[in-house]
Design goal:
The complex is a heterodimer of chains A (about 425) and B (about 850). By secondary structure, chain A is of the alpha+beta class. In chain A, about 15% of the residues lie in helices and about 40% in strands. Chain B is of the alpha+beta class and about 850 residues long. Chain A: InterPro entries: Adaptor_comp_med_subunit (IPR050431), AP2_Mu_C_sf (IPR036168), AP_mu_sigma_su (IPR022775), Clathrin_mu (IPR001392), Clathrin_mu_CS (IPR018240), Longin-like_dom_sf (IPR011012), MHD (IPR028565).
Chain lengths: ~425, ~850
């Protein structure tokens, strides 16, 4: 791993906070970061790793901050980036928003966190749930040497403290699937996949044992059952609380959940999905005079379901003017700063088809600059429905005190990276 | 309440900039020393907070060190942390005062609260003061046995820090033993920290000993570790060599789950371990690579751009050995509209590798879409990618499919010319030039296409490429003379040196095949260049051509009509898959990410005669050069007809074994050069013709290059020749001065050999000392630099002047001893690269000297 030092910079490259972990790279080297970045930007070859002499900068950008790790070793790049993203995650959990302002306001906590997250260039305690037990903003409150030892630091169940109590024991399960689609200009689906995640909001007392049952095809094949729809999941990622050995042996998802909100698992399904909202577009550009746009949107999902807050974003030339719209439903708006028309449909029932026409004027003097061909993008949300057909079959909650707890399940399908390329 | 205080704080911080930094420090000191503040814990802590804030803002508050030392004796843990942050930042400036802190720290190590203990221990070692080592050792030893895991974690790494502070001092064997035994600590982080610490402490011995019990212990506990720990363990285990095949396969099956881990770093670390555990079992490595395909592709779709980029770079590595690995998944490498340029370019490089009969139609269409990208670099990369795939298709042979799709490729390129966009036209013309060099069968189409595109070409690179095409294929482009006429008429206002040189050559070449149309304007051009042109290079070149024409048309033809193409380069396409071991050791490090960065570093490119075109690897404009092909590189330069390769087969033969490329970027300023050059060097000049003195990361070499004939070339032509092979000449001594010196530098990069150091900087000095180099005990007669006009005089036979000038009489008699003393410095040391460089340099010098025969 070996990151020598970590820096948080503002957009101008000024160091907001830094921490020298190894002392083998001069801290002044960071002064080269911004000039290097500018130089690369000018050449159009920005790269997440930049070098000045023997020092390598690995950086990510988050809102108005640069997080930079320096090293002079041939270190493991993916691990360093993972760590930088971990930093973002931890800071965000502490301050809600990670930005220049929140770093300035909370620099004491940031120093404390940097101290715990890494030592001598090696990541140490990076779980924000554990960190929150002994580094708190209330730490600014005067408290004479808190003598409470954070049990979780050495606890067997490091993600959950003991002695949690709720009056009403409940678990909320959200199954969220995002669809990524790329459709060619001639209407063929180039690639599509589903990225799903199961999120928990746990409000349970004590140390409960949970078991989650899904309609996982591998599980059904294992147990010999073969009825109903099943799902093949790929790239399944679990929260550290899930006992992977049990999942590997008999596909049981069993765990002691962290308290509060957490992502239990994520998965990817790499199948050919029928695009749930299909867009046909005709964009005709008459040089020097006008652009005519016709967009047809069709809901290719079950009639009982309804897509909410549908937004179809259609690109228009940057020099277009005097917009005119006609829609069969919803309303269209021209967003000149993004060079697009946004057509919003509050509720879009399955099987229906809607139409939008737009007309733009073009100046007689043509824009010399070549413009890219941005795709049409679509945003939507369909509740009570999953594309993959994944279902929570049961959630068993067992705690030694024997209380009854209620699981609540909610399904949502939403658009992910949903792009349809256009001809113009 | 807290919020209110924070706002208050921000206000006071905001007022600070009005005070100078000295005033700020004074103000802060007053606050810290105020007994009233000190007695009120809240106020005291706030005062300290102000100090830390000032420190974060870059104010030098080191003057408050003694006040802050006093502040560290407190029960308030947050205040302690803040003071420690301060002390660790400034301790090295105040080693004496830091001694005062040690007492407090040592007392804290006895504190009943483990948090206080670990804090004290960590900061004790973070002070980085060698003078404090003796006070730190005892608490660290105690810390290893502490009952709280958090303290043990800190103590273990503390020893590594201590060792880092005094690398030469031996760490007590008892401590090392203790660390080994802590590998069995119940806390997984303590275990992993032990590994890390032992790796650091035992670096000299090759790191922590990895034997069978340790290996099995680590493997069994792998699951308990977090992803950082797992990666560390997996990396350390790479050194393990299983004793039997059974053991090997047991380990592999144990690791199988990690191989498809959803965490990319763990997956990559496991793959790396697989590759190093069984280098002798290619089937296993291959199976492992196929198994990681899924997770790797998933990482390519990761939300984080940086992770996507890293995955792409590593996929490029894998493809070197298993070109077919991703074939079916080419759609995963299609670029999204909003992706950053560095990802798009990598994806295109991968896409080109994946071209095959089944997907070619789709791929070409996709690449065509990228050619109109708004980012000009991406567009250019896409155009080069198109050409590369075109070359590959040509290379697929005379097969019908390859043929028809390479036509399709050209069709797309020609379509792009129709867009009349400056940067696109320029990129297309440049790539077309490269294309005909490798695939001469495309030349007919290209000749038709280039007509009329001079109107949209603005940049020097593009126009140079067009001129080259017009010169070489002029007889087939009907409008060629008219196009050249426009250029010749505008030569007065031409700013680019390269374009002028290319124009001269192109006009000469065209004159040879279409004399009637060209004669008049060639005359005008030569007249202008000789009489009015101020640039010496252009003038020299024009003069050369002028004299050449005097020698007769046949002579001229012999010199100017070199090769038009080099289809042999196309052979590179069918390059066999590399063994995995070639890149296995650089897998999962920073290197693959940086390699690509270097290849894309520069956007300048010369004529194909000068740069080898390697479509598989250099998909983007690159000025790195493979010395294995410097015969081509040197072949009949169009902007410097002075350079010609003579038979240096032996030199080339030896250099072929060292795949090495040179690059002049990043550029080195004369100041930097001087600094590096003058760094203390120990050279024993008495030891013989070749001697070396090596530091740990730098090497100096002296060598005598025998020049069979004295070099009569202008500094400019030497410079031009060097530049062809990507060696930058930095300074010359004035003409006629003795000794003559030339300073030069280059960066070497060992292509594809994944050993560190992979990239080195070479600085060099060519020295001709004049009459009799007594020191070396032989007569050096080699002249590296003679002024340009001297060159002309000699041609006219007035060699005596030159003889007198350079003391060549002696040199003549003993021609074998003629030599230019070459002194080279290399950082870091890499002898093979150095040898490769020397052979290139020798070739250039030989070429130059034989040219002037």
């Amino acid at each position: 791993m070996s990151a020598s030092a970590i820096f948080v910079l503002d957009l101008k490259g000024k160091v907001l906070i830094c921490r020298n972990y190894k002392g083998d790279v001069d801290m002044a080297e960071i002064d080269h970061f911004m000039p290097l970045l500018m130089q690369h930007e000018e050449e159009g070859l920005v790269c997440p790793v930049m070098s000045h002499g023997k020092v390598h900068f690995m950086w990510i950008k988050h809102s108005n901050l640069y997080l930079v790790a320096t090293t002079n070793k041939n270190s493991n790049a993916s691990l360093v980036y993972s760590f930088l993203y971990k930093l973002v995650e931890v800071f965000t959990e502490y301050f809600k928003e990670l930005e220049e302002e929140s770093i300035q306001d909370n620099f004491v906590v940031v120093y404390e966190l940097l101290d715990e997250l890494m030592d001598f260039g090696f990541p140490q305690t990076t779980d924000s749930k554990i960190l929150q037990e002994y580094i708190t903003q209330e730490g600014t409150k005067l408290e004479v040497a808190k003598s409470k030892v954070p049990t979780t630091v050495t606890n067997a169940v490091s993600w959950r403290s003991e002695g949690i109590k709720y009056k009403k024991n409940e678990v909320f399960i959200d199954v969220i699937e995002s669809i990524n689609v790329l459709v060619n200009a001639n209407g063929s689906v180039m690639s599509s996949d589903i990225v799903g995640s199961i999120k928990l909001k746990t409000m349970l007392s004590g140390m409960p044992e949970l078991r989650l049952g899904l309609n996982d095809r591998v599980l059904f094949a294992l147990t010999g059952r073969d009825k109903g729809k099943t799902v093949v999941m790929e790239d399944v990622k679990f929260h550290q609380c899930v006992r992977l050995s049990r999942f590997d042996s008999d596909r049981t998802i069993s765990f002691i959940p962290p308290d509060g909100e957490s992502e239990l698992m994520s998965y990817r399904i790499n199948t050919h999905v029928k695009p749930l909202i299909w867009i046909e577009s005709v964009i005709e550009k008459f040089s020097h005079s006008r652009v005519e746009i016709m967009v047809k949107a069709k809901g290719q999902f079950k009639k009982q379901s309804v897509a909410n807050n549908v937004e179809v974003r259609v690109p228009v030339p940057s020099d277009a003017d005097s917009p005119k719209f006609k829609t069969s439903t919803g309303n269209a708006k021209y967003v000149p700063e993004k060079n697009m028309v946004v057509w919003t449909i509050k509720s879009f029932p399955g099987g229906k088809e809607f139409l939008m026409r737009a007309h733009f004027g073009l100046p007689s003097v043509e824009n010399e600059e070549l413009e890219g061909k941005p795709p049409i993008t679509v945003k939507f949300e369909i509740p009570y429905f999953t594309v993959s057909g994944i279902q929570v079959r049961y959630m068993k909650i067992i705690e030694k005190s024997g209380y009854q707890a209620l699981p609540w399940v909610r399904y949502i399908t939403q658009s992910g990276d949903y792009q349809l390329r256009t001809n113009v | 309440m807290i919020k209110a205080r924070l706002t208050l704080f921000r206000l006071s911080a905001a007022t600070m900039p009005y005070l100078g930094s000295e005033d700020t420090v004074r103000e802060l000191r007053r606050a810290l020393c105020n007994p009233n503040v000190q007695s009120d814990q809240l106020r005291y802590r706030n005062a300290i907070l102000k100090v830390i804030r000032a420190m974060s803002q870059g104010v030098d508050v080191s003057g408050l060190f003694s006040e802050m030392v006093k502040a560290c004796a407190t029960v308030d843990i947050v205040q302690k942390k803040l003071v420690y942050v301060f002390l660790c930042s400034y301790a090295t400036l105040n080693p004496e005062l830091s001694l005062l802190v040690i007492n407090t720290l040592r007392k804290d190590c006895q504190d009943p609260n483990p948090m206080v203990r670990s804090l004290a221990l960590r900061n004790m070692t973070n002070l980085r003061l060698p003078s404090l080592v003796e006070y730190v050792e005892q608490p660290l030893t105690a810390g290893l046995k502490d009952r709280a895991a958090s303290v043990r974690r800190v103590a273990v790494l503390g020893w590594a820090k201590l060792h880092n502070l005094q690398t030469n001092s031996e760490i007590d064997a008892a401590v090392v033993n203790e660390l080994y035994s802590l590998l069995r600590d119940p806390d997984p982080v303590v275990m992993v920290n032990c590994l890390r610490a032992l790796e650091e402490i035992l670096k000299e011995e090759g790191g922590v000993a990895i034997n069978k019990p340790i290996t099995h212990h680590l493997l069994n506990r792998l699951k308990e570790c977090d992803i950082w720990g797992q990666c560390e363990v997996l990396r350390t285990l790479q050194r393990y060599r299983p004793q039997s095949e059974d053991e090997l396969f047991d380990i592999l099956s144990l690791l199988d789950a990690s191989l498809v881990s959803p965490h990319p770093p763990v997956m990559a670390a496991t793959l790396s371990l697989f590759l190093s555990l069984c280098p002798g079992v290619p089937a296993v490595s291959q199976a492992a690579l196929e198994r990681v395909r899924g997770p790797l592709l998933a990482t390519c779709g990761s939300v984080s751009r940086e992770m996507r980029f890293t995955a792409l770079c590593h996929i490029q590595l894998l493809l070197r050995s298993l070109p077919g690995l991703m074939g079916a998944h080419y759609k995963r490498f299609f670029c999204g509209y909003a992706e950053p340029a560095y990802i798009k370019q990598r994806k295109m490089q991968v896409l080109v590798e994946l071209v095959n009969d089944d997907n070619v139609a789709m791929l070409l269409d996709e690449l065509r879409g990228y050619c109109t990208d708004v980012n000009t670099d991406t567009a250019q990369a896409a155009i080069s990618a198109l050409v590369s795939s075109c070359v590959i298709l040509c290379g697929l042979g005379a097969g019908h499919i390859g043929r028809s799709y390479s036509d399709r490729c050209l069709e797309i390129l020609i379509g792009l010319l129709g867009l009349k966009q400056e940067h696109i036209t320029s990129a297309v013309v440049q790539t077309m030039r490269d294309l005909v060099w490798v695939c001469p069968q495309c030349s007919d189409t290209v000749c038709l296409a280039v007509e009329g595109c001079e109107e949209t070409l603005q940049d020097g690179q593009g126009r140079q490429a067009l001129l080259w095409l017009l010169g070489v294929y002029g007889e087939r482009v009907s409008s060629a003379p008219y196009t050249l006429e426009v250029f010749i008429d505008g030569v007065r206002c031409e700013a680019s040196l390269g374009v002028k040189m290319e124009l001269l050559t192109a006009s000469m070449r065209l004159f040879l095949c279409r004399p009637a149309e060209m004669q008049d304007m060639l005359g005008r051009l030569l007249h202008y260049c000789i009489e009015e042109e101020t640039d010496i290079c252009v003038r020299d070149q024009a003069l050369l051509y002028y004299r050449l024409l005097h020698c007769g048309i046949e002579e001229t033809r012999k010199v100017l009509q070199g090769r038009r193409s080099d289809p042999s380069l196309g052979v590179l396409i069918g390059r066999p898959a590399e063994p995995i071991s070639q890149w296995a050791c650089s897998f999962n490090t920073l290197e693959p990410l940086r390699q690509g960065a270097m290849e894309t570093e520069s956007a300048s490119r010369g004529s194909p005669e000068h740069v080898t075109f390697d479509p598989k690897r250099n998909n983007d404009p690159s000025d790195t050069l493979n010395c294995g092909h410097d015969e081509e590189a040197l072949h009949s330069g169009s902007d410097s007809a002075i350079v010609r390769t003579d038979s240096t087969a032996d030199v080339l033969g030896s250099s072929l074994t060292v795949p090495l490329s040179l690059s002049v970027s990043p550029a080195l300023s004369p100041e930097e050069f001087e600094l590096l050059w003058l760094q203390p060097q120990v050279l024993h000049t008495e030891q013989g013709p070749e001697k070396m003195k090596a530091d740990k990361d730098c090497v100096c070499v002296e060598e005598h290059v025998r020049c069979p004939e004295i070099l009569h070339c202008s500094p400019q032509s030497l410079q031009a020749a060097m530049q062809l092979v990507n060696i930058q000449t930095l300074a010359f001594t004035p003409p006629h001065a003795l000794p003559l010196r030339v300073y030069l530098y280059t960066h070497t990069q060992r292509a594809r050999v994944a050993v560190t150091p992979h990239s080195t900087l070479i600085l060099g000095e060519l020295l001709y000392t004049g009459e009799g180099n007594q020191k070396v005990g032989q007569v050096d007669g080699g002249v590296v630099v003679v002024e340009g006009r001297e060159d002309e005089q000699m041609k006219e036979g007035e060699q005596a002047t030159a003889d007198g000038l350079s003391g060549r009489d002696t040199g003549r008699t003993d021609r074998e001893q003629d030599g230019v003393k070459v002194t080279l410095k290399q950082h870091p040391r890499d002898e093979n690269a150095l040898k490769g460089f020397l052979s290139i340099l020798t070739t250039v010098l030989h070429t130059l000297s034989s040219e002037s025969d």
